[in-house]
Amino acid sequence: MNTMTLWHISGWGLAALACAALLVGFSKTAVSGANTVSLAVFAAVLPARASTGVLLPILIAGDVLAVLTYRRHAHWPTLWRLFPAVAAGVVVGTLFLVWADDAVVRVSIGAILLLMAGVTVWRRRTADRGAEPEPDAVTTRSGRLKARSYGVLGGFTTMVANAGGPVMSLYLLSAGFRKLGFLGTSAFFFLVVNVSKVPFSAGLGLIDGRSLLLDAALVVFVVPGALIGKWAVHRINQRLFERLVIAATVVGGVQLLLR
Predict the structure, then answer these.
(1) Could you tell me which residue, 218 or 136, shows the higher pLDDT?
(2) What are the transmembrane regions (predicted)?
């Protein structure tokens, strides 16, 4: 079957999906959270629920490239603290998808992203800028509570709308991760989480032969996006990096609310 006829995709629609796939690669190796724009493009071109199934394998391809690029910079203690809470969030998100319609999903995720972006900006403005927090600070009681809270929200948002990137980006920023540690930790985190979502998505009918056929046509665009991101990340200073992550989160949240 011709890929472009699977959901009656026009040539312009397919071009938009290709650009969104390229942006996925860029976001995985440069500005995590920017792929919320890709999420919005996929949902605009394809049926909203079907778009999450098509996007998931493309995200996994980006995760693999990010792991290969930043594997030496991952902070595993943080990852082990996050995974149990994320697993709970994925289960809650799966149950939510059983009954929630597209409008409820969009509004819920958009509101969560904007709220968390606001909290992150407020925390960073009131924090002591003279002493940067360290990733090991998450071993404190308040740090563990924050990790669990963000973990559940990250699992929930990534399951229902592939929108966990901004949530975890805000968590890693608030935990004091520098640029490469941020990218290495998030790369392994999302590879594990996105692969674990495949059985759930397939069980909900979001991944099938049609979605995989479209993925085969789009995944090649992830590679140049990842290479551009790898080139760009070393030319972005830490403060600009943080601002871009927060800005991408706000853009994604607004798009979800207005779409």
Answers:
(1) 218
(2) 82-99, 105-122, 150-174, 180-200, 212-234
pLDDT of residue 220: 95
Sign (positive or negative) of CA dihedral 22, 24, 27, 28: negative
> Which among 165, 22, 138, 24 is positioned nearest to 82, based on CA atoms?
138
The mean pLDDT of 5-34, rounded to a whole number, is 83
The residue assigned the tokens 């190796």 is 29
**pLDDT classification of 1: cutoffs 50, 70, 90:** very low
pLDDT in tens, 221-254: 999 999 999 998 878 776 777 677 778 767 767 8
Please tell me the distance from the alpha carbon of residue 253 to that of residue 178, in angstroms, as a whole number: 24
Identify the CA nearest to 112 among candidates 166, 51, 39. Answer: 166
Torsion, CA 230, CA 31, CA 137, CA 86, rounded to 10: -110
Amino acid at 255: Q
Closest of 194, 252, 195, 214 to residue 41, by C-alpha: 252
In angstroms, what CA-CA distances link 12 with 4, 16, 56, 79, 119?
10, 6, 22, 39, 38
The per-residue DSSP string of 146-175 comes to HHHHHHHHHHHHHHHHS-HHHHHHHHHHHT
In this predicted structure, what is the pLDDT of residue 25? 93
- Torsional sign, CA 105, 108, 111, 116: negative
